[in-house]
Amino acid sequence: MPSGHELTDAEYSALADFRRTLRQFQAFSEERAADFGLTPQQHQVLLTIRGAAPRPVSIGYVAERLFVKPHSASGLIVRLETLGLIARRPSPHDGRQALLELTPKAREVLERLSAVHRDEIVRMRPTLKQLLDTIA
User: How far is 133 from 128, CA to CA, in rounded Å?
Assistant: First the structure.
């Protein structure tokens, strides 16, 4: 995927800063999830289910969105069920498949967690825009 020119020192610097900024956001996200007693992957599962609305969500969909194997996604779902954050219901179209729903408790946690993430993204936006402009 050659771009037609070698990267400049400024582009290397912007790429390094961009990756650092992404990692900084990731660390922020991990800490906030932990504040709510969640692992980063558990938070991502909740966000994946909520973000798919109004489409029904299966374990396969969660696995695909998290880039994990279905059995790994299933383990995450079991732990979230144990925490009272996820409920399964049979699919009306395929009785072998379970559909996932957030519990009211999960909706409350996710709303609070997502608001803090949105605020952090808004805070980081000027930096990210500047880096992307330099890279592009």
Answer: 8
CA dist 106 to 7, 31, 133, Å?
Answer: 45, 18, 37
The rounded distance, in Å, linking the Cα atoms of 79 and 42 is: 8
What confidence tens digit (pLDDT) does each residue in 39-57 have?
999 999 999 999 999 999 9
- Residue of 73, 71, 70 whose CA lies nearest to 42: 73
DSSP 37-95: T--HHHHHHHHHHHHTTTS-EEHHHHHHHHT--HHHHHHHHHHHHHTT-EEEEE-SS-T
- The C-alpha atoms of residue 59 and residue 82 are separated, in whole angstroms, by 16
pTM of the entire predicted model: 0.89
Query: For the domain 9-135, what is the CATH code?
Result: 1.10.10.10
